[in-house]
Amino acid sequence: MQFNSSSNGNGVSVSDSKYPKGVFVDLITLTKVDNTDSKYNDCNLFVEGDSGGPYPKKFYLGGNHVKDGDVMLDWGTSKKGVKGGSWKVAHFIEKTLGKKSNDIVLNDDGTIHEDELSKMLGRKVFILQYESSGPRSRDTWYFFAGEDEGKDALLDKWKSMSPPQSYKHKPSNDVMSEEWAKGQKQMASQSADLPDFLK
User: Fold this and answer.
1) Per-chain mean pLDDT for the chain
2) How many CA atoms lie within 13 A of 53 on its CB side?
3) Is the separation of the CB atoms in 6 and 13 below 8 Å?
4) Is 70 exceeded by the pLDDT of residue 21?
């Protein structure tokens, strides 16, 4: 007996699959969207949704806004000088409710207004999860697709971008490049401690 190709577990031949290894796209119906406390983020959401499987999909989204002191000015992005920006939350709400980010109502403390949260319940959105090398076996990616866009829109976006650092199946060239950079940095820091005649 001979096997011609391996399967991804869903009966689809890996060589015929349009999904990268360890990447899963699901259409979920939102059953819970709540503000949660965070000492690191201006806004933080806990999201739970039903994908038709035995277990609900659960994830957190959070980030920081552009601020002037305590006054919220805009959604945070790296282009606006905010590391860990709140753009992820805005993007999720845009794809779920079909609203423009500037039309999303916030509370005075930067969290999402209760009316916005309640409008999301029962809505559908595509999420992408990937096998992770981090503390959880799967992570949820910070991009989403509206129900009308379809899962291919989200999958195409994944394929057009560099995978997250925690993606378990990163191409070996990416992993080798990262390891090389780490080694170079370590060597540079060690050589700084050497006497001049050994440098």
Assistant:
1) 85
2) 12
3) yes
4) yes
